[in-house]
Specification:
52% of the residues lie in helices and 11% in strands. It is of the alpha/beta class. α4 packs across α5 and α6 runs parallel beside α8. The longest helix is centred in the last third of the chain and has 26 residues. The protein is globular, with a radius of gyration of 20 Å.
Amino acid sequence: MAKPYYEFFCPVKIIAGNAALEHIPFELAALGAKRALVITDKGVRANNLLEPIEAAFAVTDTVIAAIFDDVPPDSSLEAVRKAAETYRNHQCDAIIAVGGGSVIDTSKATNILVTEGGDDLLQYSGAHNLPKPLKPFFVIPTTSGTGSEVTMVAVVSDTQKNVKMAFASYYLMPHAAILDPRMTRTLPPHLTAMTAMDAMTHAVEAYTCLAANPISDAYATAAIKKISENLFKVLDQPNDTQGRLELAQASTMAGIAFSNSMVGLIHSLGHALGAVAHLPHGLCMNLFLPYVLNYNKSVNEHKIAELLLPLAGADIYAQTPSTQRADKTIATILTIRDRLHALTELPRSLSETGKVSVEQLDEVAEKALNDGSIIYNPKEANLKDLRAILEQAW
C-alpha cells in the first residue's frame, strides 16, 4: 500500500559494468572538469587498483593532477585538510574517491572545503548547512557494503576531541558512482563477507523500518536477492567477475534504499558498539541483524515474512506456511552467518569478537538509546530491551 506521503531522491548517475572505469574521463569532461584529484588509501594503492584508472586517463585530455593516499581507516579532520591542500596546490577541479567508507567520507568532506574555501569544517556539520552545489565528484567503491556512493551523509572524526562529526546535505551526493568488478576482485574473503552483510542489513532495515516506501522497497528486495544469490559464489570463486559486479550493484541499491527510507535499531546498536569497542561497522551489523528482527517481529511480522522470497528463493518461500515465514527468514539469516563464520571466521556473537566485555554492554545500550536511527525502528525499545538484545547477541 502506498504511503499517504513520501519522498524519494537519488540524483547519482550510476555507471556500471566491466569497462565502467574507462568512461570516467569523458564523464568528467562533460562536467567541465580537466584536472582530477584522486583520494584513496595506502591499501588501495598497494593492491594496484589505481592502475586501470590511470590507464583510462592516459589517452584523454582530462588528467589525474594529483593522488592523495593518506586516508586513515577512520576518516579524520586532519586527513580532510591535507587532501584539500593537495587539491589546491595542484589546481584541481574535480575529486575522484577510490576506496571504502572512510575514503568516500574523507572525499565528501574535502569537497566541502575546496568548494567553500578555508579549512574550518565545523561550520558545515549537521544537516543541510551547505549553501550551494560542490565541485564535480565521482566515487569508485572498492568494497561492496557501505552504499556511501549514493548517500548524502559523511562522518568525520575529530581525533582531538574524540568525537565523530556528521554532515548531511543533498550537495554531498556524488555526481556519479562507478561500479567496476575489477575494483573489488582483490577484497579478501572476510571483508567480502563483512561488507556484504553490511549491505544486507541496509536493505533489510530499509524494508522493515517505519519510513519504508514502495520505491525503496523495490531497491531493498532486489539488493537482498543479489546478495543471497551471489555472496557464496564469490567466496568460492573470488575472481567471479559477474558475481563481484552483482554484489557491487546490491550494495549501491541497498544504499539508495536506506538513504530514502532510513535504518533502525540494528544501526543504533551497531553505531554504539562501534564507538565503545571500535569494531568495524559491517561486523556490528552481522552481529545484531537476526536478534533485532526477532525483537521487531511482534509488530512487523508480515514485512519480515515477505523477505523470505528474495532471501531464500521461490521454492523455499512456497514450501513455508505463511505463518512460519518470518521465523524462516530469521533462521535463513542465522544459517548464512554460520556459513560465513565457517568460511571466513566472521564473528556471529559479541563473545566471538574477543574485543567486547560484559561490563561494556550497559554503555553500548545507553549509547544506542540515544542514537538517531532508533527513531525509525518499528518497535519502541527501552534500556532493558536493548540490554536483552545485547545479551542474546553475546
